[in-house]
Amino acid sequence: MSASAEMPYFINPSKNLTSEEKKAAYEQAALAIDANLFEESNMILKMVTINCILKTYFPYHYWVGFYIVNDGKLIIGPYQGTLGCLHIDFSKGVCGRAAREQKTQLVNDVHALAQGTAHIACDPNSQSEIVVPVFDNEKNLIAVFDVDSSVKDSFDEIDQLALEAILEKHFVLSNLTTSYI
């Protein structure tokens, strides 16, 4: 299946926020996430809740979701947005690099990367991206959290620090269950 460059009717184009607006939105989103995930231990429920709240609070989150580690590769997990890549090798793309290096990746212009190797174009409308590795409480990599924007230069250190803190609080510092029900 090939991706269309036309913006899907159900997706709004991204709109970047100022630094002050970002900080305020992350404070509100973190409070909402904390309130909804209080005493929650199910990994999937945490993922869908984080996706929903962040997509609600941030107009530049065009695509938001998790790729879960499975048999040494990444597979699509809970997400919101257009169709995501179903499988990603650790050797490919920004998500693969985040998993391989176990380090957050910030990309201001995904189209400046080598397509098919350094970047995998699941959706041609994506212009910038942040990918954060997600660890369990034993510091094992369990997923990567991927956020794309349809505008270049959407992500910065504010996003990185806030997302890393949210994911650490709700995955590393908690007890997880991985059942789907």
Strand and helix map with partners:
Layout: H1 19-37, H2 43-57, E1 63-70, E2 73-80, E3 87-89, H3 93-101, E4 105-107, E5 128-135, E6 141-149, H4 157-172
Antiparallel strand pairs: 1-2, 1-6, 2-3, 4-5, 5-6
Please, how many helices?
4
Classify the fold: give the CATH topology: Beta-Lactamase
What value does the Rg take, in angstroms? 15 Å
User: How many separate domains?
Assistant: 1
Describe this structure in words.
- With 181 residues, the chain is α+β, with helices and mostly antiparallel strands.
- The protein is 33% helix and 22% strand.
- The chain is built from four helices and six strands.
- A six-stranded antiparallel sheet has the order 3-2-1-6-5-4, sandwiched between helices.
- A hairpin with a 6-residue loop joins strand 2 and strand 3.
- The longest helix is centred in the first third of the chain and has 19 residues.
- The protein is globular and about 40 Å long.
- It starts with 18 loop residues before the first helix and ends in a 9-residue tail after the last helix.
What's this model, at a glance?
With 181 residues, the chain is of the alpha+beta class. It is 33% helix and 22% strand.
Q: What key phrases describe this protein's structure?
A:
about 180 residues; alpha+beta; 6-stranded antiparallel sheet; 4 helices
